[in-house]
From TrEMBL, chain A:
Keyword line: Ribonucleoprotein, Ribosomal protein
A GO term from the CC aspect: ribosome
Name of the featured protein: Ribosomal protein S27E
One Pfam family matching this protein: DUF6510
InterPro entries membership: DUF6510
Organism domain of life: Bacteria
Automatic annotation (TrEMBL), chain B:
Protein name: Ferredoxin-NADP reductase
Record keywords, A-Z: 2Fe-2S, Iron, Iron-sulfur, Metal-binding
Domain named FAD-binding FR-type: residues: 27-128
Superkingdom of the organism of origin: Bacteria
Cofactor entry: FAD
Region (Disordered): 1-24
Lineage: Bacteria, Bacillati, Actinomycetota, Actinomycetes, Micrococcales
Comp. bias intervals (Low complexity): 8-24
Amino acid sequence: MQHFDGNSLAGPLADFFAFDITTTNARCNGCGNVSELARAMVYRSDAGTVVRCDSCDHVLATLVEAGDRAWIGFSGVSAIEVRRS
Amino acid sequence: MSDASSLATDASEAATPAAPVRTVPRAGWHTATVVAVHRETPTASRLELDVDGWPGNAAGQHLDVRLTAPDGYTATRSYSIASSGPSSRVVLAVDKLPDGEVSPFLVDEVRTGDLLEVHGPLGAFFVWEPDGRRSLSPAGRVRPVQLVAGGSGVVPLFAMAQAHAAADDLTPFRMLYSVRTPDDVYFADELMALAAASDAFRLDLVYTRRTPDGWPTPPGRIMREALAAAVIPAADRPLVYVCGSTGFVEQVASWLIELGHDAQSIRTERFGGT
Ligand SMILES: Cc1cc2nc3c(=O)[nH]c(=O)nc-3n(C[C@H](O)[C@H](O)[C@H](O)COP(=O)(O)OP(=O)(O)OC[C@H]3O[C@@H](n4cnc5c(N)ncnc54)[C@H](O)[C@@H]3O)c2cc1C
Ligand SMILES: [Zn+2]
């Protein structure tokens, strides 16, 4: 199945967050790796989008959109680092 | 692989640290008017858009195009922006995948005057911005930039090369561009002109199916040794931007790491496919 970079989530996530979350560092629950979301692997299907760790393939996040609702889960992320500007 | 503090150190050492990326304009949905369409290659079109309310964009950013069918069905795809700066004019170059849902429409059907719904500017990660101060610093203190493009993957990298030239930035830039044939080179005239105009920009082309007459090497896919010979050596600690089909990007990125490039210094943009 083809995949993209986390950088391609900038559009889908811009509607939900006040800043570009793709440059945020996130820690993977699976392997502890800390990396920008833009470096994660993104798999898309009609059912939704799955974001996987680029080090261990663990599922970091899921995004499901249906009509005017969206479900965003960060099941595999233990922390994100947000820098105040 | 690395903890937060080591990443923070990497970021502060990098020639494009996190700072510029947070200043990119806020994304929004806009109506774009197609102001020019032309054939870029036998399979691709260049679209120039005038985007209502566009806040400008940095080199390397993309936008999402949303097409809506009369029955309300929508399809959204990402396209890199070949231009940068404060202008509301935005240039795209789209390659047609014959069995694709969106690209055949953008390449063959779109006409001057058509309206498109676009979301952007997007992405603060795969971005290069000129830094006037760096241009003046001694050559040895500048981190050079290596661009590696496969096919349509040249689009955001062309924007970076053009921004580099427009800013008179002296950071050494080198582009390795892999294409099928001489007819498949995107922005061919512009790239040749950039390479001719500046010692700080070097262009290396690799032809995978057919070369120009008299080309020194036979056509063929880029191999590890050819990559090693054409990119800025790992010892010079370049920032590397790799863009193209997913298969191309994965192959190049894994070879770069084998050649000693630091994974944190490599930024990738996968366009899809295998
Ligand atoms: C951040 C980002 C920037 C992009 N920028 C550009 C750009 O500047 N120019 C451009 O032409 N495209 C770009 N793309 C790719 C673009 O978003 C679409 O994926 C592409 O146009 C195909 O869409 P489609 O609807 O025609 O094909 P789809 O209906 O989505 O797919 C049709 C078939 O083609 C395959 N496929 C999809 N993408 C590719 C590919 N790149 N190579 C080979 N096979 C593929 C699919 O697996 C599928 O079998 C970008 C993608 C991303 C994520
Ligand atoms: Zn992991």
